[in-house]
Amino acid sequence: MLAVIALGGNAFTREGARVGSPEEQWERVRLAAGDVADMIEEGFDVVVTHGNGPQAGLLAERVGDYLSLDMIDAATEGWMGYLIVNALTNEFLRRGIRRNPVIVISRSIVNKNDPAFQNPTKYIGPIYDKETADKISRERGWVFRWDARGGYRRVVPSPEPMGVMELDLIRLLIREGYVPIAVGGGGIPIISNGEIQGIDAVIDKDLASQVLANAINADYLLILTDVDYVYINYKKPNQSRLVEVAVNELERHYNEGQFPLGSMGPKVLAAIRFIKNGGRAAYVGPLGRAKDIIRGRIGTKVIPRD
Predict the structure, then answer these.
(1) Is residue 119 assigned to a domain?
(2) What secondary structure letter does DSSP report for 289?
(3) Residue 145 lies in a domain
């Protein structure tokens, strides 16, 4: 059985989507390593993906005058990939798992005419109060939107991923028993104008993970983040969690606008697309609980139609 485990960028950060100290980052990534090792011990082959929203936002603030967003995407693939590969190596050694993790710097193909370039929705960076967000917006021309976590975050274009350039390599690594860490931060966005060229955007890692998962015929997609379940009517008096839901029901909730575009929306859409393109089950649940998620103790499970 083959599973893609998508680790949320926010799952590696402190409250407020802020990147912590190196020690805090190592502490968080060890939870993820435990999840991956648990899945391997359960008999799965695993591909790991990860988000980069907080990390990309931090780099954009500090070095945005020198690096475009595609370069920042590449930098976060190395940064977070290094954390993950070291944590996995140590966890595998501790458990006696004879697997080697490997980072695949990945490029995701997008359409240069994607309407997302005119309508930024992808959250990156930390959460600000309105006064600070307005000040940064005036100074740097950045666009901010309200985040359901409470505050304002920068939003950037997030075009639809259409394919992964390194797909054949990832397939080869799976066959040879490696644990690839791929499409970090959704992959580096590229377009083709007769030659390959990066473009200023950040691809949603959940949608890129779904594209990859279906392309490699994965059985399961696990989206691990900082929430216990997918909810409808979130933060309303009639809030209700979804434990096991058929893809057609989940799609109805999605089309009703139940899930914010910049946060839970892409996770739900990725789960829907994965199932509709042949996946056996998709899960959304908390980092550090992968084994409990696949056993139905926590998290939301998405299944094919009733």
Answers:
(1) no
(2) -
(3) no
Distance separating alpha carbons of residues 176 and 104, to the nearest angstrom: 15
CA angle 216, 120, 203 (to 5 degrees): 20
Show the domain range for 225.
2-110+161-303
3-class state of residue 131 by DSSP: helix
Residue 119 three-state SS: coil
How far apart CA 47 and CA 33 sit, in angstroms, is: 12
Q: Which amino acid is at 241?
A: R
Q: Count CB atoms within 10 A of the CB of residue 304.
A: 13
Please tell me the total count of domains within the chain: 1
- Position 107 confidence tier, pLDDT thresholds 50, 70, 90: very high
pLDDT of residue 208: 98
Contacts of 254-261 with C-beta under 8 Å, sequence gap 24+, read 258/232, 258/233, 258/234, 259/230, 260/148, 261/121
* pLDDT of amino acid 73: 95
Q: Give residue 306's pLDDT.
A: 64
The two structure tokens encoding residue 55 = 């990390």
User: Residue 198 is encoded by which pair of tokens?
Assistant: 């990066």
Asked if residue 31 is part of any domain, the answer here is yes
CATH number, domain with residue 291? 3.40.1160.10
Provide the whole-model pTM: 0.92
CA distance readout (Å), 14 to 127, 178, 261, 275, 306: 11, 31, 22, 32, 39
Distance from C-alpha of 134 to C-alpha of 141, rounded to nearest angstrom: 10
Active-site residue list: 9-10, 122, 205, 267
